Amino acid sequence: MGLDQYASARKGEPTIDEEGDKDWSDSYDLGEWRKHPNLQGFMESKWCGEGEFNCVDVELDLEDIDELEEAVNGADLPDTGGFFFGGDSSEYYKEQDLEFCENARKALEDGYTVVYSSWW
Q: Quick check: 115 and 58 in contact, CB under 8 A?
């Protein structure tokens, strides 16, 4: 059990299967993290929903990606904790975070929607 985090690029409308799960025929993975709590805190700050920030999609635009890159480079991701989140792993994931930013920009340029989701 723990914090699992994912980012993907999606284009078009999803199909919905019998269980109600959505599937995009034009999508690809942009990133995957395990117990990166400060990234979770950053993404939660971008979320406009109510209730618990768990198993929800957050759409990111170019401004969000730029802000994330700046926070990663400045070691300024928000300190975030949670029962299943683990300890600060910002330095461990720094290169992966920057690679995600680069790939997310390319996806946005290509007309995809960039989405972050997590489960804990």
A: yes
Give per-residue burial for 90-107: e unless 16+ CB within 10 Å, then b: beebeeebeebbebbeeb
Q: Are 98 and 68 in contact (CB under 8 A)?
A: no
Residues near 32 by Cβ (< 8 Å), separated by ≥ 6?
Answer: 4, 5, 6, 7
pTM of the shown model: 0.89
Distance of CA 95 to the CA centre of its chain: 15
For residue 115, list its beta bridge partners. 8, 59
Which pair of structure tokens corresponds to residue 116?
A: 């972050």
Return phi, psi of residue 58, to 5°: -120, 120
Average pLDDT (86-97) is: 89
Helix then strand then coil, in percent of the chain rounded to 5, is 30, 25, 40
Please tell me whether residue 16 adopts helix, strand or coil conformation.
strand
Mean pLDDT of 99-104: 98
